[in-house]
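Before going further, learn to read the protein records used in this course. A complete example follows; check for yourself that the lines match position by position.
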Amino acid sequence: MKRGITGHYVSISTVGDELARAFLPDPLPPVPPIEVDGRMGALLDQASTALGRLDGISSLLPEPHLFLYTYIRKEAVLSSQIEGTQSSLSDLLSHEVDRTPSGLRDDVMEVSCYVDAMEHGLSLLRDGMPISLRLIREIHGRLLAHARGSALQPGEFKRSQNWIGGTRPGNAKFVPAPPEETLAAMGALEKFLHDDPIITRPLLKAAMAHVQFETIHPFLDGNGRLGRLLITFILCSDGVLQLPMLYLSLYLKRHKSTYYELLQRVRTEGVWEEWIEFFLDGVITTSGIAVETAGRLLQLFQADRNRLNGESASVLRIHEHLQKQPVLSAAKVKEILEVSTPTAALGLKKLEQLGVVHEITGGKYGKVYAYSDYLAILNEE
């Protein structure tokens, strides 16, 4: 169904008194209501089943948090790549053992802040804080705390006009809500997230809230990354997922042009159904990939554990920790496992000899080892 424009334009003045038009979205839910039938109804059922299967992994895995450590970091890398960063998962993991790759310090720091923001938000939800403007601002403060946007009001809604594309609002591709309308627009979004004025199914809520957040663009920087984080937070907050194992950035990166096109067409044409079907396709695809990946990693861990039969207790403990943190140095092993430096170095060297890890720096000192087969599985996509 095409509804036409889903908001209205507001005239704004910019530098030099140039006139431009900013877009202020109507509050959610859309009018007329979303039609959940036909293909969308079938996709919604499939997506719900896929999420249920994905959520079931958390009860089957012996250590689900082993997967979460790296899944969260993979999502951080992909979401940041959509915004133009160049760092990889290996770069981020190397950074976390104090070996930031040369020339990528800013990119890796940006991704690292994303990880911190995600983990902080999930912690707040676990502690009982609802998704609210306070939570959103607090997460944003973490997202930009030490990254390139640290001078752009971290944790505060915009006080000056932002825009997307172009060099100024007058020639921009899209100009989001004006600063003076942002708080009210975000307040209306907060009500929708709390099922006011109507109760909304979590998957539909996440799909619509993401578009609304990106349309309001309430911060000067970091809106895209925070808007994608919001999807996972909604699904966890509403009890669809017990653990945050769904991340859509891989799907959105693969279909980046369609993603941005649909965001704009929802605003100008009201094609909510097209957007939601695209979103549900992403949930189905991404859930399937996550389930398959978890199964393959379990097989890898067991196969390598079998190869290590008869090895020392320290080697086995290092292998167990590599399942959570697949890039390690001897110093990090010493710190985490509370063993001596020689024990840590010998354990990593033994795992290298057995082909479980590979040294990735090529230097004589400060060596860093990667669980290569683990990273290869995660990097396939």
